[in-house]
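testing teh design pipeline on a random one, pls ignore if ur not involved
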C-alpha cells in the first residue's frame, strides 16, 4: 500500500491518496494536523469526502466492450476527534479530501 498527503489552497484542504494494490482490504486512519481542535466528538467537525476506484480483479480496466468495469464510488465520512478511518478496498485507488 502507498499513501501520499497533499495540502492545497493555503492548507485549507488536505488530499490523501491511498493506493492499495493488494488483494486484501485494510483500514487506514488519517489525522490532518490542525483538525483535532475543531472535531471534538464523533460526527462533528469537518467531513471527509471519499472517492474510490476499485475492482476485485487487479487486471480490470474499462474498455469499449466494458466501459463500466471500474467506476468511481463516492461517499462522505465524519471523523472522531479529527481522525478519519476508512476501510480501503482491495485493488483500489482512494482519494480522501478533508477541508478545514
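output:
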Amino acid at each position: 500500500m502507498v499513501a501520499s498527503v497533499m495540502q492545497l489552497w493555503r492548507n485549507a484542504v488536505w488530499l490523501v491518496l491511498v493506493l492499495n494494490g493488494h488483494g486484501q482490504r485494510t483500514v487506514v486512519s488519517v489525522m490532518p494536523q490542525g483538525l483535532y481542535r475543531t472535531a471534538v466528538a464523533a460526527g462533528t467537525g469537518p467531513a471527509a469526502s471519499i472517492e474510490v476506484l476499485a475492482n476485485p480483479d487487479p487486471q480490470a480496466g474499462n474498455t469499449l466492450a466494458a466501459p463500466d468495469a471500474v467506476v468511481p464510488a463516492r461517499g462522505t465520512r465524519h471523523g472522531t476527534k479529527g481522525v478519519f478511518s476508512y476501510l480501503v478496498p482491495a485493488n483500489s485507488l482512494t482519494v480522501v479530501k478533508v477541508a478545514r
